[in-house]
Amino acid sequence: MGILGAHVSISGGVYKAPARGKEIGCDSIQIFTKNQRQWTAPPLSLKDAELFKEEMKKNAIQVAIGHSSYLINIGSPKDELRKKSIDSLVIELKRSEKLGLRALVFHPGSHLGIGETEGLKLIAESLNTVLSRVTLRNTMVLLETTAGQGTNLGYKFEHLADIIDMIEIQKNMVGVCFDTCHAFSAGYDIRTVDAYNKTMDLFDEIIGFDKLKAFHLNDSKFDLGSRKDRHEHIGKGFIGLEGFKAIVNDRRFKTLPMVLETPGGEAGYKENLKVLRSLKEYE
Q: What predicted TM-score, i.e. pTM, was given to this entire model?
């Protein structure tokens, strides 16, 4: 079983997140490194960073990862938006490093009409710029699988493989976060053990398990291939319990954080964590 957890709030200070995670039964947490609705943020104080690390230990949270602001689009053909996105991603990675986060997850980007090939090139070029501006020692930058809404890129494993292939700086610090709802909505079936195994074999063939560093565990409100990003409670959506049972019992990923982004806030997370743990077949 992976290291189960959920996305928790940093309201009132980032150092408050670990205790919130413990309260709902997390062994791992995901946080925003700053207010995700704003481009910039006041500098993260050394005191807050140290408090966060202390609270991680105190609350027995094994792994923390970050999620970038949804404003970021490093694949935008609009120069101003792309520059702001690059600057913002650099800020978030520096904050993540200071907090000792294992990874920062971000959505690859949207091509906004210039086409997938050019969009993928722009994402890789922008990510190379980001990686030239920050030295990563603790924090990997993870491309998230997407549902493929609109002009969003990252809904095919090939997209992520192509981006990674074009990375020229700190390539070893670039990986992938597998979002179950997004991948399923993009057309990758994980509803049964057989379907899950075929999809993961494909992932390994195209991207490689060495690049898989985290999971977002979310059921889907819409059916396979819908290209719609709407999360549902575990077992209550179109993926169903068998698919999640296959994931949480996959020993290949037992050291990876598997975090919930399901509806219902903290109460919802508590229930979904119970459901996931009820599916485990080994300690």
A: 0.97
